[in-house]
Design brief:
Blueprint: H1 10-30, E1 33-41, E2 44-51, H2 59-74, E3 80-83
Helix pairs in contact: 1-2
Length: about 80
Amino acid sequence: MSEVKNERSKGDIMLDISNVLSKIRPYLNSEGGDIEFIDFEDGIVVVRLLGACTNCGVQDSTLYDGIEELLKEYIPEVVGVKNIQ
């Protein structure tokens, strides 16, 4: 008997990523920052932190302890986050 793979398309995953980031955005905006979703490839969400987030002392905590953990919690295909400048 052949297995049926229940893999989601990259487009569906990217839509889910955008939806999660839209829930995070108001928090970042309230601190003078923002986030731009660039791409999703091989389990990695590529983003660009903007505004006050670019030079913030807690940037890594926001990125990895906050954004990455939320994305991994809601989207099983996500394994990490990478910030590009």
